Amino acid sequence: QKEVEQDPGPLSVPEGAIVSLNCTYSNSAFQYFMWYRQYSRKGPELLMYTYSSGNKEDGRFTAQVDKSSKYISLFIRDSQPSDSATYLCAVKRQAAGNKLTFGGGTRVLVKP
Amino acid sequence: DTAVSQTPKYLVTQMGNDKSIKCEQNLGHDTMYWYKQDSKKFLKIMFSYNNKELIINETVPNRFSPKSPDKAHLNLHINSLELGDSAVYFCASSSGLAGVTDTQYFGPGTRLTVL
């Protein structure tokens, strides 16, 4: 069993819809949670970073963490075709050499 | 200006060959990483270096050898290439290791195909 599980998709939504992405992780030692966006044939780029249970907003993006359930989510409001990409969740432990453990990514397609 | 750059972008080679991938960052960061992304998009760390010192060495065949000549460069040499080495290899860098928000910045990737 992988340490971080993520539905590979693809997830297809119409423009303007809310995109909902989820990850589950197995180890409660993971304390920091990230979402990366990866466009086709590009490197991942950091979208959101959080380390506490609850919600964190940044523009159209909201990251949500539930440590009791070991469940992390990313919501994209008013989705745009430019949001079409693969979204990777990542987790890390404290004092672990900044080692990130990634989920397998969910491919999202926003149709105009 | 490219923050994290890799060369080459594409690499096609025969089984059994030896090849190198180069990575350079101009962000002034102390820490650099190599990741492997397989065909299913699963991204897994291989190595990390901090100030030229090896920090993370995951379960990677010893055919893979990283080398960090200075803080701004981290190269990956692969001996006796196998079909299973075909993947996209990403270099990344961060300002350090200890900061809880040490963001990792990724390069564009090197797509390696072993025939």
Structure keywords:
heterodimer, A: 112 residues, mainly beta, five-stranded antiparallel sheet, 11 strands, B: 115 residues, seven-stranded mixed sheet, four-stranded antiparallel sheet, 55% strand
Please provide a brief summary of the model:
The complex is a heterodimer of chains A (112) and B (115). Chain A is an all-beta fold and 112 residues long.
SSE topology:
The complex is a heterodimer of chains A (112) and B (115).
Chain A: E1 4-6, E2 11-14, E3 19-25, E4 30-38, E5 45-50, E6 54-58, E7 61-66, E8 71-76, E9 85-93, E10 101-102, E11 106-111
Parallel strand pairs in A: 2-11
Antiparallel strand pairs in A: 1-3, 3-8, 4-5, 4-9, 6-7, 7-8, 9-10, 9-11
Chain B: E1 4-7, E2 10-13, E3 19-25, E4 31-37, E5 43-50, E6 53-57, E7 64-70, E8 73-78, E9 87-94, E10 105-106, E11 110-114
Parallel strand pairs in B: 2-11
Antiparallel strand pairs in B: 1-3, 3-8, 4-5, 4-9, 5-6, 7-8, 9-10, 9-11
Task: Report what the structure shows.
The complex is a heterodimer of chains A (112) and B (115). Chain A has no helices and 11 strands. Chain A is mostly beta strands and 112 residues long. In chain A, the strands form 2 sheets. In chain A, strands 2, 4, 5, 9, 10 and 11 form a 6-stranded mixed sheet that branches. Chain A has a 5-stranded antiparallel sheet with strand order 1-3-8-7-6, with no helix packed on it. In chain A, 36% of the residues are buried. Chain B has 115 residues and is an all-beta fold. In chain B, 31% of the residues are buried. Chain B contains no helices and 11 strands. Chain B has strands spanning 4-7, 10-13, 19-25, 31-37, 43-50, 53-57, 64-70, 73-78, 87-94, 105-106, 110-114. Classes of the chains: A mainly beta (112), B mainly beta (115).
